[in-house]
Amino acid sequence: DPERRKLRVEHTRDCLHLAAKLGAPTISTEPGGPIDEGVTREQAADWFEEGIRSVLPDAAEAGVRLCIEPEPDLLIEKAGQYEEFMQRFAGDELAEKWLGLNFDVGHFYCVGEDPAANAARFKGKIHHIQIEDIAADRVHFHLVPGDGAIDFDEFFKQLRQADYDNGWITVELYTFEHKAVEVAQRAREFLLPYVS
To answer: On the chain, which terminus has fewer CB atoms closer than 10 Å, C or N?
Structure first.
């Protein structure tokens, strides 16, 4: 739907400028999709690329990096799909400076990938990290870190070796809005030894 895509582009543009006013170095965007019936992956990727290209000048103007977040059931779910999509921007100086990866640990786990291996794979390309845990069945339901099956010891080991130095790690637990303070405290207690 062209109107929905136009609204999404304007929303992203507005978020870039708001982030600049707030002093935030990055914003995250969904990775295109879900792909509508009758639309090919290639067409969906073309539309997503068009939208990204249209806001990159705004990212540069705002001084805020736009980060693509691979997510289950959307256009870009897996590490290889992200790399393939980013090839569309090879040699584009604006994209090299202002487009990057929002590494969601749980999302990579949900789609059958190893977050630790992906942290090593994307050395130098990770510009923001979102953390949540996921159960061993890999169903996309965010859990408090430490309550699921993700190997955070190995993930943080690989992240340190990948020289992640952007500093920003957020915990995404929208599934626990009703007890936000409690789960925030639990997440902090679990993660603090890894980031201290």
So the answer is: C
